[in-house]
Specification:
This protein is mainly α. It has a domain of about 210 residues. The protein is built from 17 helices and two strands. A two-stranded antiparallel ribbon has the order 1-2. The longest helix is centred in the C-terminal third of the chain and has 29 residues.
């Protein structure tokens, strides 16, 4: 069974790698790039919020920090367009992670609703700084990034697709390691009962902070890639509250605390959002559909798609095995029956 799972994952990876080579339409690959970006960001968010139970609604701060960090490095170091800015994406992620250390240390001193409010407040503080630090961020005018002029229109999305895929695989690898490590068990214990976990010897403060910083690192890398993809960063777009809502919805829809849940949520929500944005951008219908879809999932699948379907499949399998066992017990308990009169009659004729 494990071999089939590994083979299936390898086949899926091969299909994902071949996607931009098969579907070359720029509109399709653009949606694919954004989907991979949000899948990576939602996976990073899930490493903290899904495993600890702390719902963070300020990760757009690290998304914007990554975007601005890459833009500033390209501007001050005169980085040309092409593949060179991609090598600076991890550096931009590290910048976001460094900022996340003091911010996380402050926010994680509280719990529950207060923590949510503090993360939102920190996001708005950084957005205001992006507006007002004009000597650094250029204020509302924003910053531009180098344009790869050597890339044709059909090829332009391809490098961003594969870079986003690498970031997603990196995020999945970290999420898998955390989920199957002793450290991850400590995070899950914090999610279940933080006070009890502390009594059992789990270093709750440092464990939460490390998960918070790892999450900010991944989101910062996504923000840097996004900034280079759109070729400019502005305070309202780099520090966008809708980003926080989107990745949280993806985590909730797919299933928080799971590895594949945020990815599934991104695969459903991001293409849908892109489609409805293109079709109904004038009147905001896509926001209504976006919220209605989430409401339906919350009502029908409150734990998310992956956990709910997994639980229902396990229940179905258990009920099926129980029926088979009961049927086998009944058959075993029946006494051997003598041949019927009709069978005996046929045997007599044959003789």
């Amino acid at each position: 069974m494990k071999i089939f799972k590994i083979v299936g994952l390898l086949v899926l990876l091969a299909l994902v790698i071949a996607f931009p080579l098969v579907f070359t339409n720029p509109a399709v690959t653009t949606i694919a790039v954004f989907t991979l970006m949000f899948a990576a960001a939602a996976t990073g968010w899930n490493i903290f919020s899904g495993y600890t139970g702390y719902i963070a609604l300020g990760h757009a701060a690290y998304f914007g920090l990554g975007a601005y960090a890459l833009a500033l490095m390209c501007e001050y170091w005169h980085v040309p367009g092409g593949y060179m800015p991609f090598w600076l994406v991890p550096v931009a992620g590290l910048v976001a992670a460094v900022f996340a250390i003091p911010m996380g240390w402050i926010a994680l001193r509280v719990r529950r609703h207060t923590f949510v409010v503090i993360t939102i407040a920190m996001f708005f503080i950084l957005q205001l700084l992006a507006y007002n630090l004009t000597n650094l961020t250029n204020g509302s005018t924003g910053l531009g990034l180098p344009i790869p002029t050597d890339w044709s229109g059909d090829f332009f999305n391809t490098p961003f697709y594969y870079v986003s895929l690498v970031i997603l695989l990196f995020a999945i690898a970290i999420a898998w390691w955390v989920r199957h490590s002793k450290y991850g068990l400590g995070l899950l214990a914090i999610r279940d009962d933080e006070d009890r976990a502390l009594g059992l010897g789990v270093k709750t403060g440092s464990s939460k902070l490390v998960a918070f910083v790892i999450s900010a690192l991944i989101v910062g890398m996504v923000g840097a890639t996004w900034g280079y993809f759109v070729e400019s960063v502005y305070p309202p777009t780099a520090f966008d509250a809708n980003f926080d809502i989107a990745i949280a919805l993806m985590g909730f829809m797919g299933g928080m605390g799971t590895i594949s849940g945020p990815i599934l949520g991104a695969l459903i929500l991001e293409p849908a959002q892109q489609y409805f944005t293109l079709q109904f951008s004038q009147n905001g219908v896509y926001l209504v559909v976006y919220g209605a879809l989430f409401l339906v999932v919350i009502l029908l699948l409150p734990r998310g798609i992956i956990p709910t379907l997994s639980e229902r499949w396990t229940t179905f399998q258990a009920a099926r095995r129980q029926k088979e066992q009961e049927r086998g017990t009944i058959v075993t308990a029946l006494p051997p029956q003598s041949k019927s009169a009709e069978v005996k009659k046929k045997e007599g004729i044959n003789l």
